[in-house]
Design goal:
With 230 residues, this protein is α/β, with parallel strands linked by helices. It has a single domain, classed as putative 2-phosphosulfolactate phosphatase (Alpha-Beta Complex). Helix content is 36%, strand content 17%. The protein is built from 10 helices and 9 strands. A 4-stranded parallel sheet has the order 1-7-2-6, sandwiched between helices. It has a 3-stranded parallel sheet with strand order 3-5-4. 51% of the residues are buried. The chain binds (2R)-3-sulfolactic acid (3SL). The site of (2R)-3-sulfolactic acid has 13 residues, from loops.
């Protein structure tokens, strides 16, 4: 069974304990996680505050990245644009990432039996990796407590790629994905968060995050870090 939660408010940490959870924040946290690991980062550690991110700086092998209000905080090496996470910047390094909504979603899922990062970029790989799981929760980060169009589209894309029954919201998300699939850049630009990124001059990020199945990898959570180890 696949259950979709449109916001973090729909899922308590306790309710996720036994499940396999896919954390989704298409714009842009989980797209950045996937891109950083694809570029050769050793790990990505999501943390919930700027202070914790800065405190984790230990030598040149650590890269501090993230955003508040879409913008790179003072003292950070990188923002939250997937395009910044190039092999030159992150290969063989540990990334510490803090973002407004996405990293809070990882904190919410931290006690789940299994946690992976999902996005449009890696939805087929995620669907394949979780094919044998009896209970899958697609945890959409949303935006400040409200559902996000792009997160639900990615949830629908995962439902579409999995051969399993889904909750009603999962079926609605799947149908929305099927309807929008032909032009995912336009679809992502339609939502509130996509429009905000366009206003910030970050339309390039929206296009980067809309590339369906661009990466065949699944970031998996262990001991507070996301890596490509299964
Ligand atoms: O909220 C988040 O986690 C971010 O991904 C939002 S932003 O796209 O970087 O503004």
């Amino acid at each position: 069974m696949i259950v979709v939660h449109a916001t973090l408010a729909q899922a308590s940490a306790d309710s996720l304990t036994g499940a396999a959870v896919v954390v989704i924040d298409v714009l842009r946290a989980t797209s950045t996680v996937v891109t950083a690991l694809a570029a050769g980062a050793r790990s990505v550690q999501p943390v919930t505050s700027i202070a914790r991110a800065l405190a984790a700086r230990h030598g040149p092998q650590v890269v501090i990245g993230g955003e508040r209000n879409g913008v790179r905080p003072a003292g950070f090496d990188l923002g939250n644009s997937p395009g910044e996470y190039t092999p030159e910047r992150v290969r063989d390094r540990d990334v510490i990432l803090t973002t407004t909504n996405g990293t809070r979603a990882f904190a919410r899922a931290a006690r789940a039996r299994r946690v992976v990062a999902g996005s449009l970029l890696n939805r087929a790989a995620v669907a394949r990796a979780l094919a044998e799981e009896p209970e899958v929760v697609l945890l959409c980060s949303g935006n400040q407590g409200t559902p996000s169009f792009e997160d639900l589209l990615a949830a629908g894309a995962i439902v579409d790629a999995m051969d399993a029954p889904a909750s009603d919201l999962g079926l609605m998300a799947r149908d929305a994905f099927r309807q929008e699939r032909a032009d995912l850049v336009r679809a992502l630009e339609t939502g509130r968060h996509g429009r905000r990124l366009l206003e910030l001059g970050l339309g390039q990020d929206v296009a980067l995050c809309a590339r369906l199945d661009a990466y065949d990898l699944v970031p998996s959570w262990r001991d507070g870090r996301l890596t490509l180890r299964p």
